[in-house]
């Protein structure tokens, strides 16, 4: 298709993406879109258009995002999995976004002689995620009374409102401050991109374009570019250590018997790989961040 025809087609077409207006996911949601090259016009309070992509941002409370997306008011959304599973568990997750990591856990007062999940039978539990917790208890065969509180869940036991709580935990310091201890993780959560089930074919094309950009940005964040010098006798072993995209690039060095090896390694097993490479005689190891990785 000719460029002007493409522009003509997309002029009428738009996808609306709902993100948290303010709160823990708000900045990161804007940042990840910015790292995909999407520039958002400043100033909009409830919504704002992108300048260089057929996209409009809707700024919402995170609790409303799953419903807006599952009913098609917004086409896409960025929200914590915990909130998604509470409000619209049937909604399809397009992509896990690698930020907003936390866990939903059960906690009890510190002095409690906790005996395991059975302890919760017949207890009162305060929680902001009642649907999620009820289905967890019912799958575990626990009959407990789940009471909804919209916030400050962690003070419920100390004022006699509940025997224990279920809440979001990241470091555990809030629990400790309130005399509670975490006894059971029930969900690991991170921010995810969700999609409405009712997108037109053209909108799906736009969504896929955005997902492709996000995947490239996430891949780049999770990997590093590595350059090293290796003695030729160790090349086979060194190549076997390096996962690479396909296989590492190997180029001869001016020094006889040595080569330069280039590859990509995952951030999470970075130090283990470096240790193995050094043990095989790799020298002059250089690690560089990757700006974008087009898959
Ligand atoms: P809103 O005003 O939009 O309803 P909120 O107060 O319900 O916001 P935030 O506290 O901003 O929500 O948290 C948004 C999401 O961030 C959580 O649902 C969770 O997925 C994620 N999150 C990550 N770390 C934490 C944490 N330490 N405490 C709470 N939420 C966290
Ligand atoms: Zn909320």
Question: Could you explain the architecture of this structure?
Answer:
With about 300 residues, this protein is of the alpha/beta class. It is about 30% helix and about 30% strand. The protein has helices at about 5-10, 25-35, 65-70, 80-85, 130-140, 175, 200-220, 235-240, 270-280, and strands spanning about 15-20, 45-50, 55-60, 75-80, 95, 100-110, 125, 145-150, 165-170, 180-190, 190-195, 225-230, 250, 260-265, 285-290. Strand 7 (about 125), helix 5 and strand 8 (about 145-150) form a beta-alpha-beta unit. The longest helix has 22 residues, at about 200-220. About 30% of the residues are buried. The mean pLDDT is about 95. Adenosine-5'-triphosphate binds near residues 24, 25, 63, 83 and 189. Adenosine-5'-triphosphate binds near residues 20, 25, 61 and 62.
Low-confidence segments, ≥5 residues, pLDDT <50?
none
The counted number of beta strands is 15
| Secondary structure tally, helices | 9
Structural class estimated from helices and strands: alpha/beta
Task: Describe the strand arrangement of the main beta sheet, using strand numbers.
Answer: 2-3-1-4-11-5
Main pleated sheet: 6 strands, mixed
Rg, rounded, reads 25 Å
Small-molecule binders here are: adenosine-5'-triphosphate, zinc ion
Amino- and carboxy-terminal Cα gap: 23 Å
Instruction: Say what oligomer this is.
Output: single chain
**Basic shape:** flat
Query: What portion of residues belong to β-strands?
Result: 25-35%
